[in-house]
Amino acid sequence: MxxxxxxxxxxxxxxxxxxxxxxAGDEAPLGASRDLYCIELVPAVGIRSASGRVxxxxxxxxxxxxxxxxxxxxxxxxxxxxxxxxxxxxGGYSAYVAWVAPPTMEHVQRLGVVTxxxxxxxxxxxxxxxxxxxxxxxxxxxxMNGRLILxxxxxxxxxxxxxxxxxxxGAAREDSGHAHHATPGGDSLRWTMVPMPENISxxxxxxxxxxxxxxxxxxxxxxxxxxxxxxxxxxxxxxxDTLRLTAGIVRRPFKGDTxxxxxxxxxxxxxxxxxxxxxxxxxxxxxxxxxxxxxxxHGIRLxxxxxxxxxxxxxxVAPGERFTYRLRFPDAGIYWYHPHVREDIQQDLGLxxxxxxxxxxxxxxxxxxxxxVLMLDDFLVDENGLVxxxxxxxTHALMGRFGNVLxxxxxxxxxxxxxxxxxxxxxxxNVSNTRTFNLSFPGARMKVVASDVGNYEREAWVESVVIxxxxxxxxxxxxxxxxxxxxxxxxxxxxxxFGRFFPEMDTLGTVRVESExxxxxxxxxxxxxxxxxxxxxxxxxxxxxxxxxxDRALVLTLETQNLPxxxxxxxxxxxxxxxxxxxxxxxxxxxWAATGDQVRWILRDPATGKENMDIDWTFRRGDVEKVRLVxxxxxFHGMQHPIHFHGQRFxxxxxxxxxxxxxxxxxxxxxxxxxxxxxxLEASNPGRWMVHCHIAEHLSAHMMMVFTVH
Length: 710
Ligand code: C2O
Ligand code: CU
Fold this sequence. Notes:
By secondary structure, the protein is mainly beta. The protein is 11% helix and 40% strand. It has 11 helices and 46 strands. Strand 1 and strand 2 (51-57) form a beta hairpin.
């Protein structure tokens, strides 16, 4: 059995061996970063001619990063060697063998026999590692006893504990005028210290940083008039129905305290709207907030004038005013709605809801016993309640506002009770400002069946779901063993200061599995990976475009100004390595204190040099184009960006040059640091539309552009 599994994984990886050339030849100008995804092997003492490279490749899968359930990034190693002499020329050896080990060299693990040329090795999942090539007496050697020939270190090993320079910097007090006395406003709201995540150390200079912005939290002069937040309600809308939706203020109890937050119709999350595919409904929005707002219907290919983007498709709705949205739903799937004004404030304060568009096909999904619709979020609190937002410009403009309380449907501690053998269909939407989750139900089998705009070509087994802000995934989970199964977020945190990875584990909820078995047995259908013939046929119509050359590109990068000296220095030292995904806020002070006035996140068209709102791409309706997204490694701070295209749908064809083999229509794609992705964009829906990063603080720090479909 074991042999079959590893053989299958090698077969799976073989298209990669044939097609990917990330680390061979000269670096492509708009390719993935070699510095982050290739290892140059160095000859050992006395070895003359041998050389080689290791690609940190990706096995095609449903997500743009390959991650284990416990959060380790997993790479398919592709080795290219040349100049190896016969093993016997080094002594009594008969083969070359590749090994991997942590930098401390405990647990040296055999990867396999290698020769000159290209070899695809098994997948590995280590934070930091070394690759060793040795000459061995036997090709079946299980321990490294022979002569070392080549070696290389993973890019992550460049992260090191601080040197004297960093400590000297950090010990100095920052006094650049960015401190708390810069807080104007005259009322009682002040910046205090940002809450500290566990496991993280901050230098004294970082602790003195404060955002140079006026702090903002919603207020109500007469709190007794503010309603208490209610749980979400399901609203079924049929053709031509009208829904009244009010964005207003609510009180929300939290740990014996009361938070003032926002809500649609007083509910957290906002009402769950359910419509039939093809229906048309009217939504009457009333703005009962103290600031302008709009509603964007994320992922829905509706008429442009109802897309909810201020100054592009409508005027923002002023406090006390209304706007009428007429919505149509051409695609089945799980969507969501949120304001398109200062998402870093409004969405974070609770303005979000799901929209379920039902297919007329009764067998659209393979069978499940029940459905659960989960909105994943986090919020940032300290002993005074919610940490204030920046009034005119966002705080947390570098990495986004990571919360310190994880929420499912607005609450910590989700719970569900099921019978033994029950299959649950979970609709997952990430509505957090910046956090990418790596979700799993340890002990239960899970398959992914759909994403943003409908079903995958075929279902796929997954250990975990990697979901970035605004993405959706639909998974089927079967609970076979009585007892408790946790819904967990398991990731690797990165302590930037000490160059150290550490486990972060959060339980978002618990599923209680009763010992009584469920009546209808779904063992067979659950155990089968179904192909969606209709989706496959729809996607097949685009095949002829998939091998076309890249039509356009977008480079994702960053510029900064007036950042405190300390922040600049530390971040420059830190830029020796960027982890593909920043799973959590482990630079809390520096990140918090950086505002949208200091940080400009950029979408750049390399063909014209234009950036952000100076870009206005034009398509003709029906155009199908290949767009390459490149997340620039040589930026001040490289991190992942979930990139969203409004009003259209696209396929993610390849990531870091590795083609995907199981496609799904998407509206948001996660670009890991230093990565490149090719998407096939179908310009099907006329109008003026946005492209932007869905990290709320990046969007509020300028990371957006426009395209027009005629
Ligand atoms: Cu959900 Cu413009 O975004
Ligand atoms: Cu971003």
